[in-house]
UniProtKB/TrEMBL annotation:
Its cofactor is Mg(2+). It is an enzyme of class 2 (transferase). Residues 13-61 form the PAS domain. This is diguanylate cyclase. GO terms for biological process: cell adhesion involved in single-species biofilm formation; negative regulation of bacterial-type flagellum-dependent cell motility. It comes from Ferrimonas aestuarii. InterPro entries: Diguanylate_Cyclase (IPR050469), GGDEF_dom (IPR000160), Nucleotide_cyclase (IPR029787), PAS (IPR000014), PAS-like_dom_sf (IPR035965), Rev_trsase/Diguanyl_cyclase (IPR043128). One of its GO terms (cellular component) is plasma membrane. Its EC number is 2.7.7.65.
Length: 315
């Protein structure tokens, strides 16, 4: 028998370890070989609403029928059989347990993003009789990375796609049109006399005008359409599965609605018009650059003809 001092020391160490396991800000679930719950810490209690006494010795999948059973069982069986640790990240699977977001003020998602570690637990004989699931709340990191990813594809002033993102959409749409012989129309829009707005009302007023044009475009196009700020005061729209006639009708609605806009700025009222060039995809379109050049040439013709009008490129 160990001396009393050693027994006390071991009990103290066990007590400290139990406190740590219970209070650590990481979910800890220990499963036996039948996938019944042997341990359920405070993190899991707080986020699931189920106490340890409610789930102990119960089947994990009976307690949580929404878990990805086939996928998770496969990983757990591998841990038991091969004594291998496994990892998954929120990018591979956003969550394991569908817990609500614990940071609703700063979080952008209604649920908690999670990373998962599956850790085999060996007994004194080296046999894996239990497996631990470690669930990490990575909601803040996930939201931050998603925000950065979105920012890299969005024009911050208008909220539309930026030039890089739009180019990616154009490449895909060009390939789709070629492969499936489907229609699409490209539209290029430019604010008439935009320089005079900056010169008379200031650049902040010009920014307000650009933002309002962006809002107007978002309100008028379909969800399947892609609107982007191409650069400066120039915008582009990509209309999948749209022939020239309906695209021209949309272009006229856009032109008319923007001509009626009155943007209040700190320096005064801004009223303006836009010119629009259109080019529908045909077999004569050589590549993405050629398609854009055709729409841009139609825009140039609209400017030459007096602005505040829509012109279609004729192949």
């Amino acid at each position: 028998m160990l001396p009393a001092y050693d027994n006390h020391a071991e009990l103290d160490a066990l007590h400290l370890l139990t406190q740590l396991v219970q209070t650590i800000e990481v979910g800890l679930v220990v499963l036996d070989t039948d996938l019944n719950i042997a341990h359920w810490n405070s993190f899991m209690e707080n986020h699931s609403g189920l106490r340890s006494s409610d789930v102990r010795n119960q089947s994990l999948f009976a307690c949580f029928p929404d878990l990805p059973k086939q996928w998770l069982t496969s990983k757990l069986n591998t841990a038991f059989l091969l004594n291998n640790r496994a990892f998954t990240t929120w990018e591979q699977r956003p969550y394991i347990f569908k817990f609500p977001n614990s940071r609703p003020v700063t979080g952008q998602s209604p649920f908690m993003y999670q990373n998962l570690t599956i850790q085999p637990l060996s007994n004194r004989n080296g046999q894996v009789k239990h497996v631990a699931l470690l669930i990490y709340d990575v909601t803040v990191e996930a939201n931050h990375r998603q925000a950065l990813s979105k920012m890299s594809k969005v024009d911050t002033l208008t909220g539309l796609a930026n030039r890089r993102s739009w180019q990616e959409h154009l490449d895909r749409e060009m390939e789709r049109c070629r492969r499936y012989k489907q229609s699409a129309t490209l539209m290029v829009l430019d604010i008439d006399h935009f320089k005079s707005i900056n010169d008379t009302l200031g650049h902040s007023a010009g920014d307000e005008v650009l933002a309002q044009v962006g809002e107007q475009l978002k309100a008028l196009i379909r969800k399947s359409d892609i609107a982007a700020r191409y650069g400066g005061e120039e915008f582009t729209l990509l209309l999948p599965e749209t022939k020239l006639e309906p695209a021209t009708l949309l272009a006229e609605r856009i032109r008319s609605s923007i001509s009626k806009l009155e943007v209040e700025t700190e320096s005064g009222l801004a009223k303006f018009t836009v010119s629009i060039g259109l080019a529908s995809y045909t077999g004569k379109v050589k590549n993405q650059s050629h398609w854009f050049q055709c729409a841009d040439q139609a825009l140039y013709q609209a400017k030459e003809q007096g602005r505040n009008r829509c012109v279609s490129y004729q192949f």
